[in-house]
Amino acid sequence: MKLKRFIPKRPRKDLLVSGAFLGVCLLLVGTALWAWHEYMSTPPYVDSERFPVRGFDLSAHNGFANLNAAAEAGYQFVFLKASEGVDFRDENFALNYQKALHAGLKVGAYHFFRFDRDGVEQAKNLLRVVASRPLSLGLVLDVEEAGNAPGIPADSVKNRLALMVEYLNLRGHRVMFYSNRAGYEKFLLPEFEGMPLWICSFNDDNANRDDWTFWQFDHHGRVPGVRGDVDLNTFVGSRRDWEEFTK
Fold this sequence. Notes:
The protein has about 250 residues and is of the alpha/beta class. It has seven helices and nine strands. It has helices at about 10-40, 65-70, 95-105, 120-130, 155-170, 180-190, 240-245; strands at about 55-60, 75-85, 90, 105-110, 140, 175-180, 195-200, 215-220, 230-235.
């Protein structure tokens, strides 16, 4: 007895309908992916004459980088990941720092701020990584909900941030914040308004704002000497403004 006798034969019309339905689903998925690429991941136009100073950020995730090649391509600064929370430290920070100095790049160090960890302990973790290394761009606290513990009240986040900022200031460090627009409004305003801001946004409207110091405008950039996708950034202002900022 053959198994196919127990499998009912589908009418040709049903097969055609199923095929059409599958085709429509694939078309919708393809359209969604195209729209995401065109309107969500495509970077905005950043005028090189208006924003002549360009840089990128780097972590162990990018592997070993040739920062001399990046500098030769015209990049002038780099933000290096240093730490996260109270115990994570980027394994490539020290090496990337030395490479950046050798290449003549201005350097900043960033810390991914954990909403559910004590601010002072996070500050100590960051300073253990940075040690006594001079940083022409100072320290950056990365404040964003993505990758963080859910359900932490905004007031608690602000209190822990305030403790971390105060501790770092008392140790003589200049502090800047990194966030997207939603994180900036939810966790940084109004308490930290006026402090230097490194904003992440793919909206062209940011070119006309004056409340940010650095602008991260692309998550899928290419930098000579660095493998894979790289976050691209620009400084707000002229080259003369840049010289004043980095003194």
